[in-house]
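Recap slide: Phosphoglycerate mutase family protein, sequence and predicted structure.
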Amino acid sequence: MRIYLIRHGETVHNVAQVWAGSTDSALTNHGMLQIESLGRFFANRSIQFDHVYSSDLSRARITAEGICRVQPSMVNGAPLTPVLSPDLRERDFGSLEGVRIQRATGTPVETFPQTVTDREKVLVGKEKESKESMRKRSLNFLETHLLPLLLEEEDHCERRVAIVAHGLILRALWFCLTGFFDPSSISVMPGTAAWNGGPPALLSPVWSNTGVMEILISMRPICSSPAPQHSDMDHGPDEALYQAETPQPDSKVLPLLQGWSIKIVGVDNTEHLAGLRRTRGGIGSASYDSRQKRIDSFFK
């Protein structure tokens, strides 16, 4: 099985550098172009998905729908449509949602400088969702949707599955998935830019908007590869939590998928965005309006 873990397109919260979390943040015009480019990327390479799963938040759902729109019809002639799951929602940041985070070098995540108004908002509000809650949601999604597909897959029929969600929940999902495997059975495709050293089982991935992580799961043994170097790409304010909250594998739990292997084929692949430029005049960063026929109408 090939699994593609995909982050949603750019949103107005991403542009403003504020926490979005469970808030239904609108996609920007540039984000819609990213989605269109991603859909064409898969279609042009004849990457045909058997299943597409998505967070039910609109930024992920619309991204998934954009991918499905240019996919071939299913065997029964019906169009491919995403299966929506609230388990794939982004972490609920509580009162931090909508708060602008200005990263300061060497400053702990919880003490990032904020405006007075934002600081007051955080002090009187609710706590963000715990990592344990995210872990439970991730495990529920895997056990409900992904593992049944994997265990019934036949050797001659390799499924392709897309999972469209958000940076932090994708990362939680990744850690839960790798927990089903023996760490020695996890390897990396040579040349993959992923992290700054260490065993593949401890990979701590990040995602740009519409970035794609591709992994291959197989019952056949896959040889390990040397650890690649870390990419210096800026991933926005979420990067702070990526670096500060890296869970470690639970050595007390025996791997569920004994005899299986997982290979990391690509991390945060944004090849489809090559040559894509943001529309000037603030149009690219503006919230997308579905009533617009096409974004290129701005140039006419």
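The first strand starts at residue 2 and ends at 7.
The chain has a mean pLDDT of 80.
(End of recap.)
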